[in-house]
Amino acid sequence: MKAFLGFVRKETLHLLRDRQTLAILLLLPPLQVLIFGFAVRTDVRKIPIVLVDPAPDVATLELRDRLAASERFRLLAVAPSTQVLDAQFRSGSIRQALVLPRDVERRLGRGDSLPIQLLTDGSDPNTGGIMQGYATAVVQRWYTDAVPSGNGLRIDASSRLRYNPTLESSHLFVPGLVAFVLTIMSAMMTAISITREKETGTMEMLLVSPIRPSAIVAGKVTPYVVLAFVSVLLVLIAARTVFQVPQRGSLALLLGECGLYILTALALGIVISTQAPTQRTAMIFALAGLMMPTMLLSGFIFPLDSLPVWLRAISNVVPARWFLLIVRGIMIKGAGLATLWQETLILVGMTAFFLIVGSRKLAIRLG
Amino acid sequence: MSEHAIDSRELTRRFGDFTAVNAITFHVEQGEVFGFLGANGAGKTTAMRMLIGLLVPTSGSATVAGFDISSQAEQVRRRIGYMSQRFSLYEDLTVQENITLYGGIYGVSNRDIVTRTGEILTRIGLQDAGKELVREIPLGWKQQLAFCVALLHRPGIVFLDEPTGGVDPITRRRFWELIYEAAAEGTSVLVTTHYLDEAEYCNRISIMVDGAIAAMGTPAEVRSRHGAATLDEVFLRLTRPGAAA
Q1: Distance between CA atoms of B163 and B182, rounded to whole angstroms?
Q2: A205/B53 CB distance under 8 A
Q3: B104–A3: do the CB atoms touch at under 8 Å?
Q4: Spatial distance between the Cα atoms of A255 and A248, rounded to a whole number of angstroms
């Protein structure tokens, strides 16, 4: 026990003396929240749009007003024809155009179908889809209000998004960021700090001593666990104060699950460190083998549904994928353990697996 | 239980087809300074790594401090000190912090750590350097410090793997004085080196060639048995038989 405490103290000193790394580890996560929050938005505002209205009448004026009043759109012009649209789309000065037919009011009065063309700049498919959704919604509502009722059957589907009604992207990326931060802190820093000792030769001294390899590893990771926890708290505070990301579920459960994921990542870091002979290889392993999957295959940036089947299969072994479901479930949906027990169990299983593999390898290395 | 500090019987280690250490049998007495000589790759370090529990022997057996290296590794670990050829203190910790850390790992009591720290620093002339980061003290002192740290828990046997690489002759001499002091207090020393002048300081030596012990005895015995005036000559004859005049 005394040896272990001495070891934790030593590891803490390493961490505190390396001011640069410490500063990066503590400041980077909240900074990332700000960067992701302000720069990487998938919700769209002030879409430059043109309304092509060859024969304005009362009904089309109403649509025009609705577009102009919406926060989501910036009605640039009302054009009589589609002639200039191509050039404007290409230059990027507009991103959407709504093309109305003639006789709008008369058709509406008769309850006829109304052929409207909606053009959307699809060069960014994600925002393209979202813009399309917004515009369709405005037109839909306008059409429903304009058609006189009692004119036969009318299907009136009102759609509402649950949990995130305004589609705030910050609600989506903060959980991802938590996973990301924990992965860097726990897995990468553990792997690097263990391989550093191999590189400098101090690991040999430790392995020759009576201290158990498990105590070495536990002593090494303890300060990083604390640091990772502090970091997650900073991220959550930043997310809440700056972007009003909700925390609908139990905070205790959220922190508990974070603790579990920290363990998962640490175990992965240990596995990496037994494979990598140097800090550099450990870093590359961690970056390529952990960070990329955590970013790309967890649903953090790209929705899992849009992945090809084989990549989706791979994503099942990425711990962050499950952790993300858990965090989103707790924070955004207010879910409890009753709904999240499967994901939790998967993480527990993965952690156990990595710990067993890691300690096996650690023992083999001695032989 | 063996009377000897180290007793090695037919100790062998193979890596695939390559036999790094080939059935070496030797012993080290209590308080003896025993030199392991040999060219690079002759198997000195591999043999030492088996004795300190960093490598498992392929066959053969050995006892260290009376305990079997395979079945009683835990007891062996408590009774040995080790200094590797790579400098093995933490550069970003102070001298005092390094000593405290190792003391803690070996279960030395806090009071003993304090008194022994004082002794160590006085002995190597670093009284005022306790609070300095190890990276800031000169290499020669670092190595002396590493040696003293390896002796902090008063082990019966200390293993030194090329301890004097890269230091000047005066510091090397000073280092050997430390080794003698330790031996005089009853600590057995197993030291690998390829400096042949250092071999003369040893009570007994063994010269390893291609994983096997080619000569063993006191430096004088080894010289006379091979009819050579210096260990240099013996060494050259053994390692490069064709080159012998």
Answers
A1: 15
A2: no
A3: yes
A4: 13
Nearest to A137 by CA among A203, A44, A54, A213: A44
The pLDDT tens digits for A91-143 are: 888 889 989 888 888 888 777 778 888 888 888 877 788 888 888 888 888 88
Closest by CA to A244, choosing from A325, A167, A170, is: A170
Identify whether the C-beta of residue B80 lies closer than 8 Å to the C-beta of residue B6: no
Q: Return d(Cα A195, Cα A270) in angstroms, integer.
A: 10
Give A10's contacts in chain B (Cβ within 8 Å).
Answer: 90, 93, 97, 101
- Reported residue count of chain A is 367
Structure tokens, A235 = 């991220």
Which residues of B sit within 8 Å Cβ distance of A?
52-56, 74, 77-78, 80, 82, 84-93, 97, 100-107
Q: Using DSSP, state whether B204 is helix, strand or coil.
A: strand
ipTM of the complex: 0.86
Q: Tens digit of pLDDT for each residue in B163-205?
A: 888 788 888 899 999 999 999 999 999 999 888 888 889 999 9
A77: left (phi over 0), alpha (psi -120 to 50) or beta: beta
CB B189 within 8 A of CB B183: yes
State how far the Cα of A86 lies from the Cα of A119, in Å rounded to an integer.
Answer: 10
Q: What residues in A contact B88, CB-CB < 8 Å?
A: 200-202, 204-205
A251, with CB counted inside 10 A (0-12, 13-18, 19+), is: exposed
Q: Distance from B163 to chain A by nearest Cα, in Å?
A: 13
**Residue of chain B minimizing CA distance to A4:** B105
Scan for tokens 């009570």, then name that residue.
B203
The rounded distance, in Å, linking the Cα atoms of B133 and B143 is 14
For A:214-253, CB contacts with B below 8 A are none
Tokens standing for residue B161: 């793997």
Nearest neighbour of A6 by CB, restricted to B56, B89, B101:
B101
Q: Any bridge partners for residue B24, and if so which?
A: B11
Which element (helix H / strand E) includes B46? helix B44-51
Q: How far apart are CA B194 and CA B211, in angstroms?
A: 15
Residue B89: CB atoms within 10 A of its CB come to 24
Write down the pTM of the prediction. Answer: 0.76
Render pLDDT for A314-338 as a digit per residue (tens, 0 to 9).
Answer: 888 889 999 999 998 998 888 888 8
Cβ contacts of B91 on chain A, cutoff 8 Å: 200
Top residue of A208, A216, A362, A366 to mutate, by most chain B CBs within 10 Å, is: A208
Test A200 with B100 for CB contact under 8 angstroms: no
- Closest B-chain CA to A5: B104
- Spatial distance between the Cα atoms of A11 and A219, rounded to a whole number of angstroms: 7
